[in-house]
Amino acid sequence: MLNEKQEKFCQNYVVYRNATEAAKQAGYSESSAYNQGYRLLQMEEVLERIEELEQELTTDINVIKELENTFQSAKSSGHTNSALKALELLSKVRGPNDGKAKASSANAIEAEIVGYMEILGEKKVIELVSRCSFNQLSSSEDDLHLHEDVQAHENDDPLLEGPSSLTEYPDAEQ
């Protein structure tokens, strides 16, 4: 017979499919949750209870289809966190892949990247691209942009504009 914490572990394991998280939710301490979760999954009585609980879970709802719809709705509404959460839940529901490597063409990979970029939104994508090593400015370009910024704000005149061309700076590379 399972005690109260063990029963809660079983119920939470069915939801989270993660022994450490289930142990935390059942009331085991943060520091021992990993070990407790592992230990509990070694107990035959716990495994049987988890199987019973999984058998009790029946629904007429196509969970995968609902999560896919949630993802698409969140994505189209610009709700990045909700879209990512839906993807996370989809991956948990679908379970691990069959171990076969998925062959992808360059076009398929690009399409997937574009999909993720659309989820993140323009501002976040620009921020991420700016952090890429291939997008770093050379030091002379940095100097030029810094010089333009200083010139534009030199007199704090909002109507003052920066240089009209790079030729105004003879030391700038073109």
- Count helical runs: 9
> What's the structural domain tally?
3
Rg, alpha carbons: 27 Å
List unreliable stretches of 5+ residues.
153-174
Shape: elongated
From the N-terminal CA to the C-terminal CA, the straight-line distance is 79 Å
> Biggest sheet, in brief?
none
* Beta-strand content: under 5%
Would you count the extended β strands for me?
0
SS-based structural class?
Answer: mainly alpha
Output mean pLDDT.
76
- SSE string: HHHHHHHHH
Percent helix among the residues? 55-70%
Write structural notes for this entry:
With 174 residues, the chain is mostly helical. It has three domains: 4-56, Terminase, small subunit, N-terminal DNA-binding domain, HTH motif (Arc Repressor Mutant, subunit A, Orthogonal Bundle); 59-93 and 112-135, no CATH class; 139-168. Helix content is 64%, strand content 0%. The chain has nine helices and no strands. It has helices at residues 4-16, 19-26, 33-41, 44-56, 63-77, 80-94, 106-120, 122-130, 139-152. Helix 2 crosses helix 3 (33-41). The longest helix has 15 residues, at 63-77. It is elongated and about 60 Å long. It starts with a helix and ends in a 22-residue tail after the last helix. The model is unreliable at 153-174 (pLDDT under 50).
